[in-house]
Amino acid sequence: MRNSRLAAGLLIVLPHLAIIRGSAFEESEVRPLLESYCFKCHGGGKAEAGINFEEFRGSLDVWRSRNTWMRVRDAINAGTMPPEEARELPDAARAALSAWIGHTLDNVDVDRLPL
Which of 23, 28, 33, 65 would bridge 99 by S-S if both were Cys, CB 3.0 to 4.6 A apart? Predict the structure, then answer.
């Protein structure tokens, strides 16, 4: 049963994700995922828990708000986000988003940081 859920999740998520290096995806794919699964509570003028993903434009924003993104990653990994009453984030998307956040937090591209 779990494998069929994972397969169904992949069919839903893969059009939105460009899976690379086995666990992460392209930065350009993060915002559409957040819009689909997170903006109901964290966008459109709403900022549950002080988090508003509308302000997210890319990895520079992750680096600037490191503590917030560590909280986001922890909530995704713990399965507390999205909450039960929200649209379920497929396992493949959950793993890919968590990996992208971790990779981004751990690999700051100093050449892209503003002076």
Answer: 23
